[in-house]
Structures are given as structure tokens and as C-alpha cells.
């Protein structure tokens, strides 16, 4: 690990100022990605601004909205009763991510910003990684790939966004509060992440010195049923090969309203707008589910190691839809 | 000067170089070597300790972040029933992951998550045992949970 300075300012404003005025500075929250990548030599900030004691922690209900402080840990959010009652698929996604130890450290703001698990990104001995070193190419496209993206991917980058909780949060149209020296702006999570395109090093709309302070989770109407189905190589403590977050409102055998997002398949948490169109006012039948899956997993970019994910992802969504509507 | 409180004792710590993880501070500065360094990258759980009563990974925590926090390590348990149960059920072979397993299991009891064997397996999944003593670990945790 390269040397760095450590500061723990007492206020949000001071923390933002400290990072904003040093181009090599970074915020430090739970550290579960950041400290790991610093040890690996992927990150080398010259200043770490510890924000873990700032008053950005806790869950508040505001009408039909849950406002989650950015420093609320994954375990704390998973224990929220309102969330459990109204949007259990968010709790399921939280509890199927990482381990208890990591979830006691990892914050909700940090979770949204977690970096890809792509082994080539995480290994500075690999020269080609457009995300780590723009313009150097993509080793994953030409080498062994498996835990990689098939949607939103390009020959420049197939790195997967590995968050679980960001998947149901995308489905619910969560909103990210972003604070900077200039003030606050709100960005819907569905517009927060950037596709890799030719600039895989830019993963989201955050500018240097901007801090996520809260995430608003709109609560779905009462009577909504939801599920988070995660398919992986091990039963626990493993990232998704494919996952589906689905929320529906049923009227007898007909789906009145549906929200769909998928994880384990995209360079960003993948909102299934096409699937939602197909499902709305449609009968809950295998044909409907298959069309929804075909609409979501459209024009995949696959390499030999990820080709299996096309059908796996579709079946994951079909199974989630089958379970949540029955 | 940073102050680390470990098992109720306060230790002053010079962190002029803040790269020191909690794990390295415990082992190399405070000579509390019960906490083990397995992968050192947050994957194995061998370094599990409690911070203000919650289980965390000391390898991904900077010591500087623990200023004023209450850290509990395996040395702070003092004949916990979980330790006896691990011995009785032969819940280890090489023993390297055991401190982390026990710290995690003790936290699990406090979280009220040891209701079924499936729950024990799920909520202990952050602690790997390469010897594969899992079934005996589950038996040890089950026994203490039933008598708690």
C-alpha cells in the first residue's frame, strides 16, 4: 500500500472541502472495497478523508419514501421494519450480499459505488484494463471471463457491476442525494451509472469532491409482492451469476404493474423497462414471462466464458416472475 | 496519538503512518496474536473481531478508524461457552480459522440468528474453513444457541 494521509473531519462540509481541493484525495467509508484495492495497488489516494462518523446514518420514513443516510450499513438497512414489510426484495438483496462482517462495515452509499470484481481490473500486473488505465485495452475480452457482464458491455470493457441491493433499488426508482461545495443535486439511480462505452473508467455521474449523502427509496404501494432471486456458484457468500429483482401488483391472474431489474449480467444494475412493458396488463403465464425475459436480455455482448449467461439470465427472470406471481 | 480500546484495556497507538490495519495493529503492535491473518483481503473471515459489539473484518479496517471504539478479540472472551463447545465438538483441524469462527459465532448468538442449522450455515458463511470442519462447527454453534 502506498503512503497516504488520513483525516477525519467533523462535518460534511469540511469532508467535502478536503476532498474537493485535492485531486488525489478520496472519501473513506466502510472501506471494504477501497482498502482492499489500496492493498492491491489499484487505488493510491494521497489523502483519505474518513467520513464514517459524520451524521449521515439512519433510516427515516417520509410519507411514501424511506430516506436512508448514506452511512447506514447494509445490516442496519436490512433490519428496517418498514422496508421488510413494504419492499422485502430490498432486504433479501441486502442479506444475500457479502457476509455479516462485511455488511456491518459496508455502507449503502459505498455499496452503490463498489468497484467491479473483474480480476483483471483488480490486478495491476495485468497491463490491459481500460477501466484502470484508460486506453490500454481489455484483458477480460480476450482471456478467461466468467463473472462478467453481457449487457451494456463493449469490446472496451465487460466488467460487471456486482451490487445486489442496487438491483431492487433501480427497480424502485431510488434517488441518490449528492452533495458538493456548490450544493445538493438529486439523481435517479437509473441515471446514476454510466455505460462503459469508450470510457470504462467513468462509472457514474459523480464528479470529484461530490459525496453521496442519502438514498431515497420510494415505497411501492401496499399489496405489492416482490422477490430477489440470486443464482450463484455457492449457496452463500458469493456474487451473482444472474439475479432478478421483481415487484408486481396482481389483479387476479393479471399483472397490473411490474418493476423488473437484473443483476449479475450488466455493466450497470440493469433495469428491465422492456420487461415491464410486456408484463403490464398481461396474464401471468409462461409465454408472458418468456417474452419479458427475451425483451430484457436483448443484444447481449458475449465472450466464450459468458455465453451461458444469456439463457441463465432469462431463466432466472422467468423463475422470479413465476414465483412472485403464484 | 490514537487510542485503541481492546478487551477493555486502552492502548495508545502512534499512527503517523496510517496504513496500519486493525489486524496488524493487534498482532504486531499490541502482541494480541489470537486474531489471525488469513487472506488479508476480506474474503476468509479469519481476522473477525467485534467493534462496538458488531463483528467486522479487522484486515479491511484501518486502525485509525477505530480510535475510541471498543474492540473485542478472542483474547477478551475468557472461557466463553462457545470455546468449550468448539473443543467438545472437534470443530477444527488446523485451528487457523478458529478464532474468527468463534468471534463470528459469538456475534451470531447476539444477533439471534442461530435458530436453525440453515440459519447458522448462512450467517456463518463469511468464515471459511479449508479443513472443512463445517459440520462440527454447526454442531458447536447449535449446542450453545440451544442452551443460551
Please describe what this structure looks like.
The complex is a heterodimer of chains A (326) and B (148). Chain A is an alpha+beta fold and 326 residues long. Among the domains of chain A are: 53 residues, Uridine Diphospho-n-acetylenolpyruvylglucosamine Reductase, domain 2 (2-Layer Sandwich); 101 residues, 2-Layer Sandwich (Enolase-like, domain 1). Chain A has 12 helices and 13 strands. In chain A, the strands form 3 sheets. In chain A, strands 4-5-8-6-7 form a 5-stranded antiparallel β-sheet. In chain A, strands 9, 10, 11, 12 and 13 form a 5-stranded antiparallel β-sheet that branches. The radius of gyration of chain A is 19 Å and the shape is globular. Chain B has 148 residues and is α+β, with helices and mostly antiparallel strands. Chain B folds into 2 domains: 75 residues, Ubiquitin-like (UB roll), CATH 3.10.20; 67 residues, DNA polymerase, domain 1. Chain B has 5 helices and 5 strands. Chain B has a 5-stranded mixed β-sheet with strand order 2-1-5-3-4, with helices on both faces. In chain B, helix 2 packs across helix 5. The termini of chain B are far apart. The mean pLDDT of chain B is 97. Chains A and B meet through helix 2 and helix 6 of A and strand 4, helix 3 and helix 4 of B.
Amino acid at each position: 500500500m502506498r503512503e497516504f494521509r488520513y483525516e477525519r473531519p467533523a462535518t460534511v462540509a469540511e469532508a467535502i472541502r478536503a476532498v474537493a481541493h485535492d485531486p488525489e484525495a478520496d472519501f473513506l467509508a466502510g472501506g471494504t472495497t477501497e482498502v482492499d484495492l489500496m492493498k492491491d495497488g489499484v487505488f493510491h489516494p494521497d489523502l483519505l478523508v474518513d467520513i464514517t462518523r459524520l451524521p449521515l446514518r439512519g433510516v427515516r420514513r417520509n410519507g411514501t419514501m424511506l430516506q436512508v443516510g448514506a452511512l447506514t450499513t447494509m445490516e442496519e438497512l436490512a433490519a428496517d421494519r418498514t422496508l421488510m414489510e413494504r419492499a422485502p426484495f430490498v432486504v433479501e438483496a441486502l442479506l444475500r450480499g457479502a457476509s455479516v462482517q462485511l455488511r456491518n462495515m459496508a455502507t449503502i452509499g459505498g455499496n452503490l459505488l463498489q468497484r467491479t470484481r473483474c480480476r483483471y481490473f483488480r490486478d495491476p500486473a495485468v497491463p490491459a484494463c481500460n477501466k484502470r488505465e484508460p486506453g490500454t485495452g481489455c484483458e477480460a475480452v480476450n482471456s478467461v471471463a466468467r463473472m462478467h457482464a453481457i449487457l451494456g458491455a463493449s469490446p472496451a470493457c465487460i466488467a460487471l457491476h456486482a451490487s445486489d441491493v442496487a438491483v431492487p433499488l433501480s427497480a424502485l426508482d431510488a434517488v441518490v442525494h449528492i452533495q458538493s461545495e456548490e450544493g445538493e443535486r438529486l439523481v435517479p439511480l437509473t441515471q446514476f451509472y454510466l455505460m462503459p462505452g469508450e470510457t470504462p473508467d467513468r462509472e457514474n455521474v459523480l464528479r470529484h469532491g461530490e459525496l453521496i449523502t442519502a438514498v431515497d427509496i420510494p415505497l411501492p404501494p401496499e399489496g405489492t409482492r416482490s422477490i430477489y432471486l440470486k443464482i450463484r456458484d455457492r449457496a452463500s457468500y458469493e456474487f451473482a451469476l444472474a439475479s432478478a429483482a421483481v415487484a408486481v401488483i396482481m389483479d387476479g391472474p393479471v399483472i397490473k404493474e411490474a418493476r423488473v431489474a437484473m443483476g449479475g449480467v450488466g455493466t450497470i444494475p440493469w433495469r428491465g423497462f422492456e420487461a415491464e412493458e410486456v408484463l403490464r396488463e398481461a396474464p401471468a403465464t409462461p409465454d408472458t414471462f418468456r417474452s419479458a425475459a427475451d425483451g430484457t436480455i436483448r443484444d447481449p455482448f458475449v465472450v466464450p466464458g459468458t455465453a451461458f449467461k444469456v439463457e441463465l439470465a432469462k431463466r432466472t427472470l422467468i423463475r422470479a416472475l413465476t414465483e412472485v406471481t403464484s | 496519538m490514537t487510542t485503541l480500546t481492546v478487551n477493555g484495556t486502552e492502548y495508545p497507538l502512534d499512527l503517523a503512518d496510517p496504513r496500519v490495519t486493525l489486524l496488524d495493529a493487534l498482532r504486531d503492535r499490541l502482541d494480541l496474536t489470537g486474531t489471525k491473518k488469513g487472506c488479508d483481503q476480506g474474503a476468509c473471515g479469519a481476522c473477525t473481531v467485534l467493534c462496538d459489539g458488531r463483528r467486522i473484518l479487522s484486515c479491511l479496517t484501518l486502525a485509525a478508524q477505530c480510535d475510541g471504539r471498543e474492540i473485542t478479540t478472542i483474547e477478551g472472551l475468557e472461557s466463553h461457552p462457545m470455546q468449550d463447545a468448539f473443543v467438545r465438538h472437534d470443530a477444527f483441524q488446523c485451528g487457523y480459522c478458529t478464532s474468527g469462527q468463534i468471534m463470528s459465532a459469538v456475534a451470531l448468538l447476539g444477533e439471534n440468528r442461530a435458530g436453525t442449522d440453515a440459519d447458522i450455515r448462512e450467517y456463518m458463511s463469511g468464515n471459511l474453513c479449508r479443513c472443512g470442519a463445517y459440520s462440527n462447527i454447526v454442531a458447536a454453534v447449535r449446542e450453545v444457541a440451544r442452551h443460551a
